[in-house]
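Long-time lurker, finally posting.

We've been working with RNase H type-1 domain-containing protein (Castanea mollissima) and I want a structural starting point before designing mutants. I don't trust myself to interpret raw outputs, so I'm hoping someone here can both generate the structure tokens and explain anything notable. Sequence follows.
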Amino acid sequence: MIVKLAGAKRKRAKRSAYAYEARNLQGEVVFCGIRSCATGSVAGAVQEAIVEAAVKAKNLGYQQILMLSNCKKLVQVVDKKRAPDWKERTLMADMSSLQQMGLDCRLIFVSKVILNYVWSLAVLATKEPTYCCWPTMEHDVNATYG
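Top reply, 14 upvotes:
Generated this for you. Predicted structure of RNase H type-1 domain-containing protein:
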């Protein structure tokens, strides 16, 4: 399964958001999500998306997932090319736990152009928080891009 993850930040509103979309090898959307959050950075928003998407994939019975992200910082942390800060240690602990349960997860950096639809949804969520405007976000995402 391939999961596309993207995060966006709106500086004036002090909001971040993330969106993700998971497709199986046949190209069908398995699950997707979008959420605005109180994290102060794109890396923090994408970190939440990584954990949420990995847990959903594990619950659906997938054992291998490839995640494409627009956050270089987190890709370096997951690949152990950079030391994690205190927030990223939580991500590493979650990923380690999922790995012990049999989930093989790889994270690759790709540009926003490749993640265009997912990144656009993350930007939209920074403008209008999901808790106020999108009570049925999965329906809205599927109606827009499904």
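Before you design anything, note these points.
The chain has one domain: 2-145.
The chain has a mean pLDDT of 79.
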